[in-house]
Fold this protein.
Amino acid sequence: MTTVRIPRTVANLILAHVQRHEEREACGLIAGKDGRPLRCYEIPNVASEPATRFQMDPAAQIDAMRRMREAGEELFAIYHSHPRGPALPSSIDLAEAAYPDTLYLIVSLDTKGVLEMRGFHIREGKVSEVELVLS
């Protein structure tokens, strides 16, 4: 299993973001440099059914990608939450995964007291989990 290091500051920003949106899937991008995650970009979820799926606001996503490019950063990961489900890719997540070289982080809010965050690579509908290590 591949291991990916996530700085605690980045993990805390993700967890704070998803907790503010308990009833809907929260989503965003993580920028990185030299293979290290550096910053989060919260992107509004504009899905018609935000409690069960996410669709990033196109303008906000384009703006975040532009800001990454200007800072000399690249897309490191895409994250979203599952308010009522496990931290596993859903069938919709698998069907809509469009960045095969990007890490997908999923946070489950369907836990008792402790949020669960897991990481995956999704390539051609195949899922491989990565071990997340907070540093």
Notes: The helical segments are 8-19, 58-70, 91-96. The radius of gyration is 14 Å. The chain has a mean pLDDT of 93. Residues 58-70 form the longest helix (13 residues).
